[in-house]
């Protein structure tokens, strides 16, 4: 018999009428022959109200008691939902996280799921019940109530779908589905018919509020199809599955993140261990670092820029001040008036000419790019916060995201089969912890070369001109990094290309250098790009640190870094790739699956 998990968010259970409407949806699904598990959030803004109440009593309420308090919101919802189901003549039973047996670790207010027992739910479903599970909560080894972090009911729902081998997990919310960009800021945004887990993970971390990132990670890890849809309309919504909407589509979504700030460290000694010393200080303060851009060192000094949440800026500056003293760094600058614009798409990993198109559209909109980082499926640029919306609109239009990429109707992936092998994976991971970091691969790519142009004028249009010409010659550019170089009015730009295209790319670079009056060009014939890919790389912030640590131990100097939700890439100069690869394999041996 097929099993469906239906999750209803706060707005979908905000009052008794909405609770009844949700109950009807579940009963309808049951009448269609499915077994149904409902997962519900706290009513409306209930959780916010409880948080505010706690704040009236204490600036720092004990985390354990916060969980005790917040979990009541969901307990109210499940009880009311069970009453609604009963009033409509169906059989329903409510369960708290503890009653289900959602085992978590003990990190209150941000607990991770370790295991879920299914026996009780299965039995209740077998008896014809609609099982109504409280989202967002679990229980630790000592029977303390825990919560999974704000928005965590999505994660409960997808995790339950995974362990029960559900055919589908429906997420009912107050929007129609997943959009190409936030429709509240850009009304022309389009609701996507389906999107891949990887793309959704990137968009979720860029602030696309529809889904909790950890829920998407569960979906990917266990192959659960996730269906995001509106509680109040009959619109089909969006599926999050393994396939992208259209194969080869270079960009499927765009995002704007306005709450970041840039920090730049100028004149950092270019020796193994510098990045480690800096970023471990930030990790110690639990500061999440976003765009990391390190340009290639000159005269033994390098410049490192990165972004953090604006709210973390003060503690970041304290932490880097400490690093400044310890490492003898020359200068620290920062800018809190910045915004990040990103495009995401599985198809860009194999295509020439995606980055330059993005840069071109920004230059036409007269937006200056301050920093660039790229990963396999994401390109991010940092711009002045005042130009953020103009920049977002420019790239959204450039990639024609408002237009459906299919002709008449999207080809929807087949999702009526329960995910293959998912239950085996679940069984294996229940032993170590379902949400533990998993690393799929540690890889070496030593077929690339690098070019760096120094003293590039810092004005709109330069990056697009450079990469337009490189694309025009059919050269595939992999990593691009643009950063401040410590001089007024100029930036430095590094990019990697296949080795066999080095001569050609150098010719182009030389011409550009003359035309734009750049300072100089440097290149490296052999570089080694080392990548670690897996799941949980963002929430387990120690991954990059672990990489830096192990490369430092092997006495290797990192010259470029790029990160995404599913991958961290570092470049080391020269042919030390094998040594680097072995040291990373060792460093991640315990989590390699
Ligand atoms: N009620 C919790 C919150 O508001 C969990 C959820 O809604 O997903 O964060
Ligand atoms: Mg909520």
Structure, described:
By secondary structure, the chain is an alpha+beta fold. Helix content is 34%, strand content 28%. Among the domains are: 3-174, Acetylglutamate kinase-like (Carbamate kinase); 260-335 and 439-587, 2-Layer Sandwich (VC0802-like). Strand 25 (558-563) and strand 26 form a beta hairpin. The model has no long low-confidence stretch (mean pLDDT 92). The protein binds aspartic acid and magnesium ion. Magnesium ion (MG) is lined by residues 9-10, 41, 151.
- CATH structural architecture of the domain at 260-335 and 439-587: 2-Layer Sandwich
What fraction of residues sit in β-strands? 25-35%
Shape: globular
The unreliable regions are: none
The helix tally amounts to 17
The name of the CATH superfamily of the domain at 260-335 and 439-587 reads VC0802-like
Q: What's the overall average pLDDT, rounded? A: 92
User: Strand arrangement, largest sheet?
Assistant: 13-18-20-19-22-23-21-24-26-25
Which structural category do the helix and sheet elements fall into? alpha+beta
Name of the top-level CATH class of the domain at 260-335 and 439-587: Alpha Beta
Bound compounds, each kind once, are: aspartic acid, magnesium ion
CATH topology of the domain at 260-335 and 439-587: VC0802-like
- How many strands appear in the DSSP assignment? 26
Helix fraction bin: 25-40%
Report the span from N to C terminus.
31 Å
Biggest beta-sheet profile: 10 strands, antiparallel
Radius of gyration: 25 Å
